[in-house]
Each structure stands twice: as C-alpha cells, then as structure tokens.
Specification:
With about 130 residues, this protein is α+β, with helices and mostly antiparallel strands. The protein contains 3 helices and 9 strands. The structure holds ligand LZKTLF4L and cobalt (II) ion. This is methylmalonyl-CoA epimerase.
C-alpha cells in the first residue's frame, strides 16, 4: 500500500529564518512560502533529490500545530508523509486495522494539490502520519 516518502515535516517557530538556514547555509532549493488557511499553516518545501522537507509555521487562531509548538518552542519533527495510489482504500484499510483518521475522515486537498489524510499519532507509534494520493 505504501509508496514513496513524500515529505518529512518540521514545525518551526520562524519560517523565514528556517527557510534561510536551508537555502543559504545548506544550499538547498526552497519554495516560496505558501499559505494554506484551510490547514492552518504556512509551508515552505525544501527540495531534496529523493524527498522533500516541509517547513511549517502556524497560520491563524486554530492552527493544528500551535499546541505542538507550545510544547516544543524551538520546533521539531511534526509528521511524516507517505504516498499511496488509492487514498480512500488506504484510509479504509487503516480504519479496519483500528487506526483513527483525523478530522471528518474525508480527504482534503494538501499543499501539492492532491488529496491527503492524517492518521492519529497514537495509532502510529507516536508519529503523526499523513497519506497523500499520488
Ligand atoms: C495538508 C497540508 C500540508 C501538506 O503536507 O500538504 C500539511 O502537512 S499541514 C500539517 C498540519 N496539519 C495537521 O497536523 C493536521 C492533523 N493534525 C491534527 O489534527 C492535530 O495536530 C492532532 C490531532 C495530531 C493533535 O491535536 P492537538 O495538538 O490539538 O492535540 P494534543 O496536543 O492534545 O495532542 C494529542 C496527543 O497527540 C500528541 N501529538 C500531537 N501532535 C503530535 C505530533 N505532531 N507528533 C506526535 N504526537 C503528537 C500529543 O502529544 C498528545 O499525546 P498524549 O499522549 O495524549 O499527551
Ligand atoms: Co505534510
């Protein structure tokens, strides 16, 4: 069911500073900041040869990463994202296996314009897990 590792996401307290660290110090190609109000975050993608790093900053009052950053004020690894060919089939398989799908259980459109879902970290051994249909 699992395809490639699409991205590893890092929640950061200062997106511009984090993006500069990756672009200027590490010499990586980074995207422009992209505001995703529906998801309560602003994202910058760091492009690597084999995957991406997603830098996340809270956006708005109800950001899902606000509590995480309150607990980890310097930032930290927030989630991992795997590609799947059929997201609803993957969701149904996870639910049948006893995992909780976050939100209303229906896919939303993510930062890449493709459907995504999140699986509760408590059902993935402490790691918040995003599935993206590719
Ligand atoms: C989709 C756009 C973009 C893309 O890639 O395309 C993105 O990735 S946007 C990313 C931001 N969106 C999300 O994270 C959506 C899913 N997340 C959530 O619904 C919440 O953040 C949730 C439910 C994981 C946590 O909600 P909340 O913070 O309100 O609850 P708690 O703080 O009470 O946490 C409950 C429980 O989970 C543990 N936790 C929370 N966040 C994480 C995490 N990132 N990794 C691992 N564990 C996490 C927290 O410590 C609590 O554990 P407990 O043992 O109960 O104390
Ligand atoms: Co993500």
């Amino acid at each position: 069911m699992l395809g490639r590792l699409n991205h590893v996401a890092l929640a950061v307290p200062d997106l511009a500073r984090a993006a500069r660290r990756y672009s200027e110090t590490l010499g990586a190609t980074v995207s422009e900041p992209q505001a995703l109000p529906e998801h309560g975050v602003t994202v910058v993608f760091v492009e690597l040869d084999n995957t991406k790093v997603e830098l996340l900053e809270p956006l708005g009052e109800a950001s899902p990463i606000a509590a995480f950053l309150a607990k980890n004020p310097k930032g930290g690894m927030h989630h991992i994202c795997y590609e799947v060919a059929d997201l609803k089939a993957a969701r149904d398989r996870m639910v049948a296996g006893g995992a909780r799908v976050l939100g209303d259980g229906e896919p939303k459109i993510g930062a890449h314009g493709r459907p995504v879902l999140f699986i509760h970290p408590g059902d993935m051994f402490g790691t918040l897990t995003e599935l993206e249909e590719v």
